[in-house]
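Good morning,

Attaching, inline, the backbone tokens for the sequence recovery test we're adding to the shared suite. The designed sequence is right after.
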């Protein structure tokens, strides 16, 4: 193998696929990245046997070939090269690659490419989704997936295809995020599967403005889903188990509805979070309807620490219904507000013992439910 690539393109490609490399691989070759020539391009691939990422970069290919190189060593080297052409030459007898860039000359020892696991290859696309839409859908759900694997199914994001609607849902037992979007394809029978949140987060991270659309190949006999971007493919094993019934969790009515400016609420929550850290991030929301005609309603957000003090923020709000005094994990509020770009949000509640609902104003394609932490604490 003898190829030439640009340093910035190679560095970017390695950063994309490197996210699929385990820190402590069970096999030495799983700590490596596969480099292979393919159709006048250089293919980079990494896998942890549950998720694989493959990306292609433009290259001048003089001699075809393939090798695997240690991910961290090779990436660190490339990141520290000067921004110019990089020449890669494989010595088959020693399984090492000579890396030449400007006045720098290095040799990186690898492992034969035939020891690298087979990576799922893309089939025909079953769904095509605008890249910008899928990126936003992932951002608005993946953060709500469970971080601990006490219930493994909750560490994933559920895909549901029903008619011409695709729904993504994530829950960790304390909150639920649901985002829907219209798709061109039609599914007469519902299709459901759960993708590990880590793999889906990588899909969202890799989508760029260049990716007008993302094609998705649905699971077949091997229980693998594939996402095809313009220059990158991501394949992931699915999670086994039954995901909670999302529709049964979403409240259908409320006694109080409050409309606030998203940026103001987010800023107030961030200030309260500074003091709420000492109390398991519990912060109070006090919703007060207008006192009379022409007066605005108000929302107070309070974070308290017995040792470090307290913070109280007051926001004008449009409030309909009864006053509420309720406590939430303030980090959960911050995380959902961070992924809402709309100017205003709606907060709905059935009282301090019931979940709170947050959604963008005048939109019904995204809803977030948060369980309260306590009763009038």
């Amino acid at each position: 193998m003898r190829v030439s690539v640009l340093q910035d393109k190679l560095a970017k490609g390695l950063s994309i696929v490197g996210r699929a490399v385990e820190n402590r691989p069970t096999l030495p070759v799983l700590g490596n990245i596969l480099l292979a020539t393919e159709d006048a391009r250089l293919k980079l691939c990494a896998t942890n046997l549950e998720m694989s990422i493959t990306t292609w970069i433009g290259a001048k290919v003089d001699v075809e070939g393939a090798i695997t190189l240690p991910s961290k060593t090779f990436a660190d080297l490339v990141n520290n090269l000067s921004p110019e052409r990089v020449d890669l030459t494989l010595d088959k007898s020693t399984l090492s690659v000579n890396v030449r860039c400007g006045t720098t000359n290095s040799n990186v020892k690898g492992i034969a490419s035939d020891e690298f696991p087979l990576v799922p290859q893309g089939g025909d696309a079953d769904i095509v989704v605008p890249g910008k839409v899928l990126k936003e859908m992932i951002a608005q759900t993946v953060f709500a997936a469970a971080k601990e694997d006490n219930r493994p199914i909750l560490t994933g994001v559920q895909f549901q295809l029903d008619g011409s609607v695709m729904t993504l849902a994530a829950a960790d037992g304390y909150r639920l995020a649901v985002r829907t979007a219209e798709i061109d394809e039609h599914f007469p029978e519902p299709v459901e599967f759960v993708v590990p949140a880590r793999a889906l987060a990588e899909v969202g991270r890799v989508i760029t403005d260049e990716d007008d659309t993302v094609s998705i190949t649905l699971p077949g006999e091997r229980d693998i889903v594939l996402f095809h971007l313009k220059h990158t493919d991501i394949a992931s094993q699915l999670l086994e188990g039954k995901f909670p019934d999302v529709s049964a969790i979403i409240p259908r009515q409320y006694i109080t509805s409050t409309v606030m400016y998203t940026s103001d609420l987010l800023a107030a929550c961030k200030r309260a979070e500074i003091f709420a850290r000492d109390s398991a991030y519990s912060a109070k929301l006090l919703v007060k309807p207008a006192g009379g005609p022409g007066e605005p309603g108000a929302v107070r957000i309070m974070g308290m620490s017995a040792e470090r003090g307290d913070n109280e923020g007051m926001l004008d709000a449009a409030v309909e219904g009864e006053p509420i005094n309720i406590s939430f994990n303030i980090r959960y509020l911050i995380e959902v507000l961070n992924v809402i770009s709309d100017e205003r949000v709606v907060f709905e509640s059935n009282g301090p013992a019931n979940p709170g609902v947050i959604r963008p104003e005048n939109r019904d394609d995204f809803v977030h439910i948060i369980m309260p932490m306590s009763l009038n604490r």
